[in-house]
Amino acid sequence: MKFKSLPAGAALAALVSAAVAGPAGAVVISNGQFSVGINEYGQLYDSAAGVGFRREADGVDVISPGIAREGWGLNADYADENYYGSSGVTAGSFDFTADSALVSVLTDGGFLVTQSFEFVAPNVLGIVTEITNTTGGDLSALFQRVADFDASALEPETDTVSGVYGPGGFESGFFGFEDPSPLSGAFLGPCDSGCNETGDNGAAIRLDLGVLGAGQSRSFTYFYGLGAVGQSRDDLIAQTLGAGAGNVLAAVSQDGSVSATMGAAMSAAVPEPATWAMMLLGFFGLGSMLRRRQAALA
């Protein structure tokens, strides 16, 4: 079973079914070459297994050494179990196969967050995310993910993070210990115009999703890449961009043997019901006009 897309209403149905099944805690998904730990809130870490994002060929993991910090935030609510702690989030459904997972979470701020995890390449994880306004009014939405990259278990404080690659347009940062709430202000380690920083760094990308009306959804995708053995940082950047990322931040260990990326891309906005109605009327009107023209020419 794959989770490539999130049809309208499917996320809410998955959350309702969780009332019976309950959250599963955490799981490790794997394609045999790379493995990713995912907890019930949609963070990349399984504390019981000690797996964040691991390369099976040599056991290198770019999240689990040191403080295993990877998390996300939506407005004032966030899932950040290993650093700030989580606030304003309630775990819902948690479904998974050997190499994919689907997680739904409710926020106190009125959003349903559904995240679909799947390898889009052997060493690149895609996280297709849909947020839905569950309230009766309009809500603004800022979303971000933050990760502390420890590209070498032996030298965790010598990573060099650089970026931004791609067309840009997102707020980006190189500091892996940013406040998890997108409402906390500008990133402490900004990288919007590019950066090249050495130290105990990571990656952060914030998306401004605009205003969502009652029941409206927005979709977007985050990407995490981990270089294969012998793969250069530049090649991993190109691979992450090729997977669909619009912005990419890249980390590399001091000896160049381990590289990691975070990227993000926006999806087209889902039209509201009124917009669909106008589009259908437009199509019917176009069809009527074409029929009249054909009749006139006959």
Morphology call: globular
Helix/strand order: HEEEEEEEEEEEEEEEEHEEH
Helix content: 10-25%
Biggest sheet statistics = 9 strands, antiparallel
Radius of gyration: 21 Å
What is the averaged pLDDT score?
A: 84
Distance between the termini: 53 Å
Q: pLDDT below 50 for ≥5 consecutive residues: which ranges?
A: 1-23, 269-294
Q: How many β-strand runs? A: 18
Proportion of beta-strand residues: 35-45%
CATH topology of the largest domain: Beta-galactosidase, Chain A, domain 5
Helix count, DSSP H or I runs of 4 or more residues: 3
Total domains: 2
> Helix- and strand-based class?
alpha+beta
Q: Please give the CATH architecture of the largest domain.
A: Distorted Sandwich
Strand order of the largest sheet: 7-8-9-10-16-18-17-12-14
CATH class descriptor of the largest domain: Mainly Beta
Protein architecture, described:
16% of the residues lie in helices and 41% in strands. With 298 residues, it is of the alpha+beta class. The protein folds into two domains: 10-267, Beta-galactosidase, Chain A, domain 5, CATH 2.70.98; 273-298. The strands form three sheets. A nine-stranded antiparallel β-sheet has the order 7-8-9-10-16-18-17-12-14, with helices on one face. It is globular and about 55 Å long. Mean pLDDT is 84; it is low at 1-23 and 269-294.
